[in-house]
Write the structure tokens for this entry.
Amino acid sequence: MDLVIRDARVIDGTGGASYRADVGVDAGRVTAIRREGGGPALTGGRVLDAHGLALAPGFIDMHAHSDLALLRDPDHSAKAAQGVTLEVLGQDGLSYAPVDDATLDAVRRAITGWNGDGGDIDFDWRSVGGYLDRLDRQGIAVNAAYLVPQGTVRMLAMGWEDRPATPAELDRMRQLVAEGMEQGAVGMSSGLTYTPGMYASDAELTELCRVVARYDGYYCPHHRSYGAGALQAYEEMVGLTREAGCALHLAHATMNFGVNKGKAPDLLALLDGALDAGADISLDTYPYTPGCTTLVAMLPSWAGEGGPEAVLARLRDDATAERIRHHLEVTGSDGCHGVPIEWDTIEISGVGEPSLAGHVGRTVEESARLRGEEPWVTARRLLIGDRLGSTILQHVGHEENVRAIMRHRVHTGGSDGILQGAKPHPRAYGTFPHYLGRYARELGVLGLEEAVAHLTSRPAARLRLADRGLVREGYRADLVLFDPDTVAAGSTFEQPRTLPVGIPHVLIDGRFVIEDGVRTDVLAGRSVRRASR
């Protein structure tokens, strides 16, 4: 064999008890597992002493925003060093395929805060298959699966208009989703608090989900509210996918804002009822309380109609800007989940315009106080001056909700990691070791074997991956070795780009991506495409 991992504590991803074993790897697969005391010793070209380390399947990030980062940054230690061996891209209804030239330009503008403006990327694709081919051709740090982004599809079919789709436009959207699935996408995402995807009716979304279901994919919505209407929004998605006959995966399934304090049991009861009735549902969360998005995402949906340039024009007009302020501060805009915005919870995490860097690390309220002005004046100046590119942390979560949801039987891990900005959310660099160190070892919210199952076999099952997510003979050798006694997130809100500790080795396809705690130059990642039925 190429490699023998000797005397590891194997946490195989099933959730069952760990065991000591030697594990053999050859040609990118796990080829032998010799339990302690069972049979002759394994031999290989290299032997790695894993005494004191746990050996687990590579972690699967079910909600990643590395769509351009994988192309821009071959190192990609933000994820590789966590033990992530597969990321799911195309999240929240907005990404870079399928597109035409005009749509690509608009998408790049719309999600600059997530991924940068892409000026350093050669966008030599227009289709989902073309994007996945580009990942394979270039070589990437970790594996990647892709969701067809419903907002981008709507933009391509009918622009940024807030109106029902015509029958012809709906047919075009069905066709685009089908083509994306045929080219390898694993499902479809939506961002139903982001324009233009949020303009879609439930009937429109149901029709697109019917297409996804034909290909045995899943629907991954960032639904219409995580605030005042959160429970109703979850119920809407459950009902919609039930009608469409489509599997449902709830993105960053949180219960945020003051109105939802202590209400995680209500969500879990809803899900349990649907699961017991036969629904196919899963969810992901990150193990932190604050959220992360863009400042422009807070605006009411009507302000986003027409795209980024139309938004900027409205912000520059005093009368329209006052209407926006009223919706934000008094009514509670749909962009802010129906809750009046609290500027002391909105921390600027990144800007594209260097002259605005002084805002980073401060809340909007704090920046406004330093300037002797009202928070909306500061926010409006940021939106215009940064051309909608500012990212934020939104400090509105509740720890008891986070813990309750992560215990659920269909829970998986997702970082929702935005890698842009001078001070990104620490979840981008710390989600997976934080689960293992903080929530398993220190708090005991999850047992270690259970936590590993949440991060490996459960997401692999959702992605319909027949040979990933377990340490098992014949499975791909996407593996992580970590020290259960020391594994921890190094990233903090003060130092968010600090790498984790206690994860010395990560392998993808049997090749060392992290070796002795150091990123190698190996680019073993490839696109992971929907399996044909």
Q: What stands out?
A: The chain is about 35% helix and 20% strand. The CA atoms of residues 203 and 422 lie 40 Å apart.
